[in-house]
Amino acid sequence: MLRALTLAAALTVASVGAALAASDAEHPHDHAFSFDSPVGSYDMGAVQRGYQVYQQVCASCHSMDHLSYRHLGERNGPFALYMVRNHETGELEPHVGAPAHGGTFVDVTENQYVRAIAAGVTINAVDPNTGQLTDRPGRISDRFRRPFPNEIAARASNGGAYPVDLSVITSARHGGADYIYALLTGYTGESRGALYENPYFPGHYIAMPPPLAEGVVPYEDGSPTTVEQYAADVTHFLQWAADPHMEQRKRTGIVVLTFLLVLAGLMYLAYKQVWRNESH
User: Fold this and answer.
1) Backbone φ, ψ for residue 74 (5° rounding)
2) CA 111 to chain centroid
3) What is the mean pLDDT of the chain?
4) Secondary structure of residue 82 in the 3-state scheme
5) Cα 154–Cα 158–Cα 10 angle in degrees, nearest 5
6) 141 falls in which pLDDT band (50, 70, 90)?
7) In the chain, what is the straight-line distance between the N-terminal and C-terminal CA atoms, in Å?
8) Which one of 104, 155, 185, 276 has the lowest number of neighbouring Cβ atoms within 10 Å?
9) Sheet hosting strand 195-197, strand order edge to edge
10) What are phi and psi of 125, to 5 degrees?
11) Residue 236 has pLDDT above 50, yes or no
């Protein structure tokens, strides 16, 4: 009995300490993301660049176990492929991302861009012929490649710290996308041993070194290669990864609300018609 009470007291103290540590983190400021409003949508250019930042910077430590490469080429994905007719030549041409008008969606199994993205990754998997682990090019059906085989290896490579999975990180953290952006841009440049000062992290010190630096990822579309741009783009990608069906859900919500408003109006008119000659 005494042991159980001692354990409960210890857990309570630990919970209170964790809450106090979390409460001293600076509240993230609001960043103007295109998906914030009730009718907001993803900037697929930003999502594409954000995937590039994740692949070239974040993927060396952080996994995304809930995503497969095929998700990138689905209808709501950043690398969805459409065939669009050229009005000048009359020929069908490939177009990455949903076009403004028209276009025929290309099934992800035929999406050359997503197949190339997957094939550019080396996957350690069991050979069906020999039963042995072997390296092979990725397939669109594969989940995103894990940087480490297990948590022990991940901690051993990161000074004891465990890089969290980023699949749903914007939903798992208070502040969501604003928190991720603030964290990535909030490093002060000060450090304490192997810890780096960041006022947006609980305790103000984080084991992850500043992951972004100007010019570290080249952009082909001419977007600025600044820390702020990288942070905004990779946050955009992580938000899409956590909630890929957001746009469809918002459209459905607007239709439902419109229907309910019309229904409420009809019900009111019916009420007035039924009770028009009755005193209240």
Assistant:
1) -75, 170
2) 22
3) 89
4) strand
5) 85
6) very high
7) 67
8) 276
9) 191-192, 195-197, 205-206
10) -140, 170
11) yes
CA-based max dimension of the chain: 87
**Cβ–Cβ under 8 Å, residues 198 and 155:** no
3-state secondary structure at position 63: coil
The DSSP result for 86-124, as a single string, is -TTT--EEEEES--SS--EEEPGGG-HHHHHHHHTSEEE
* Token reading at 214: 């100007």
H/E run at residue 73 = none
What is the dotted CATH code of the domain comprising 31-51+152-243? 1.10.760.10
Instruction: Please report where in the chains the tokens 């991940």 appear, as a residue.
Output: 154
- In order, the DSSP letters of 156-167 are HHTTT--PPP-T
| Closest C-alpha to 217, from 237, 199, 191 | 237
* Residue range 92-130, pLDDT digits in tens: 999 998 888 888 999 999 999 999 999 999 998 887 888
The predicted model scores a pTM of: 0.85
Question: Residues 66-84: pLDDT tens digits?
Answer: 999 999 999 999 999 999 9
H helix or E strand, kind and range, residue 136? strand 133-137
- Using CA atoms, how far apart are residues 73 and 68, in angstroms rounded to an integer? 10
Locate all alpha helices (DSSP H) within the chain, ordered by sequence.
2-23, 44-56, 112-119, 151-157, 169-172, 176-185, 227-242, 246-274
Cα 45 to Cα 27: distance, rounded to the nearest angstrom: 28
Is 216 strand, coil or helix? coil
